[in-house]
Amino acid sequence: MTIYALSTGSGLSGLAVVRVSGSDCKAVIELMIEGNMPKPRMATLKKIKKVNTKEIIDEGIVIWFPGPQSYTGEDLLEFHVHGGRAIVKALMDSLSIIQNCRMAEPGEFTKIAFQNQKINLLQAEGIGDLISSETEIQRRQAIDVMSGYQGKKYERWRKKLLKALSNIEAKIDFPDEDLPKEILSDIKTITTDVKNEIMKVLEDQKVGERIREGFKISILGPTNAGKSSLLNYLSRREVAIVSEIAGTTRDVIETYLNLDGYPVILSDTAGIREAKDDIERRGIKLALKKSENADLNIVVIEPKSVHFTGVLKSLINSDSTVLVLNKSDLVSTKDLENFKNLNPIIISIKEEKNLDKLISEIRNRLKHKFMSTADTIITRERHRQHLIQCINYLGSFENKNDTKDFDKAAEDLRLATRQLGMIVGNIDVEEVLGSIFNDFCIGK
């Protein structure tokens, strides 16, 4: 089956790229392109016509990639046409009536590339992350994954375990033969080294997942301190209702933003005070839960009514908290001296004073707390779970010292190796393919 899709964004644009992949690409060229067959991998200006007619759809660039030297490993064809909706629709309609041609599913081009071993599963995920990246740090991480560095690391561990497994299976297959003591010692050394390396990687504070999904930051504080105003300022839009009436925010309001290059999920929460009704009580409970799960908390107070509940008191001395004194425009410089011992960042949202300093502080806190790892190996929860399972099997393997347990030990090592293989896609991965490629856009 040959697939096709619009690979650029929908809507009015200067250029649109329609991609076709499969064994019928030559038939598509013969039916829709005037003149001779374009030369492989050479951009060629051609008139593109409707199927079964001589009506011209557009004049554009056609690039022909014979397989296996193509993105998908199959014959691949690209139409670069003007981006008008009518042009794209006419081109897609013509492709739809060609025999054995159908619209591609989300991520199907990349899925075929993986199945044809043009890329491994990690690189496929990296492509998806690159398309979805919204900040520079996300783009860099996705590029690193696509480069294959992580895959080489997983594959190196896997090959080490396969070597150890082959020696154990030799003992099982030839029970009368005694393995040299140095081989048995090497097996133990190999598995221990791999286990220790993986355990070290797992102590990464989930930096890769945080970069990919966004760092969680909660804004907390008493009522009327300016939490919603701060959310609106950082978001550059009216996300939350701002009112002088205390307790306006009852639920958690979340927004995703690029904060000075860092992907952030910012949460505005209910004001912390003695609740006046059940709804407010539930809102405060949600606020406290958000603070527990946040990577960073911003506690906002204001100088005319500074009071800390027990929860806020415990937060202000934490390394995961930035204390902010808002409404500095309402008091004198002398009055602000009273707050020096709390070491707050003094701002005025109304006058937009020192907000750049606050953003810089948030960025530095995230950088120092989560960016200590030079090389991010784990970028998805899927990778982490496979590594945890690998560690568990290696631990079980190490507990089997009796020669009678060789069969069980071999199975533990085989399962540990399998977990590493599933990360890069070297072993059965059908159960994870759907969830990975369904997140892609159509045309990639």
Task: Name the structural class.
Answer: alpha/beta
Q: Report the sheet with the most strands, covering strand number, pairing sense and barrel closure.
A: 6 strands, mixed
User: Reading side by side through the largest sheet, how are the strands ordered?
Assistant: 3-4-5-2-1-6
**Net shape:** flat
Kindly state the number of beta strands: 12
Secondary-structure element pattern, one letter each: EEHEEEHEHHHHHHEHEEHEHEHEHHHH
CATH topology description of the largest domain: Rossmann fold
Could you give me the name of the CATH homologous superfamily of the largest domain? P-loop containing nucleotide triphosphate hydrolases
Radius of gyration: 29 Å
Helix content: 40-55%
> What is the CATH architecture assignment of the largest domain?
3-Layer(aba) Sandwich
- Sheet-strand content, in percent, reads 15-25%
Under the CATH scheme, which class of the largest domain? Alpha Beta
Total domain modules: 3
Number of helices: 16
Low-confidence stretches: 243-247
**Arithmetic mean of pLDDT:** 84
- Terminal Cα separation, in Å? 17 Å
Task: Give a structural overview.
- The chain is an alpha/beta fold and 444 residues long.
- It is built from 16 helices and twelve strands.
- It has helices at 25-32, 85-96, 108-115, 121-132, 136-147, 149-173, 181-202, 207-213, 227-235, 278-293, 310-316, 333-336, 355-370, 381-398, 406-424, 430-437; strands at 2-6, 13-21, 44-49, 56-65, 76-83, 101-103, 215-220, 253-259, 262-268, 296-301, 321-325, 345-346.
- Helix 4 (121-132) packs antiparallel against helix 5 (136-147), helix 6 runs antiparallel to helix 7 (181-202) and helix 7 runs antiparallel to helix 14 (381-398).
- It is flat, with a radius of gyration of 29 Å.
- The two termini are 17 Å apart.
- Residues 243-247 have low confidence and may be disordered.
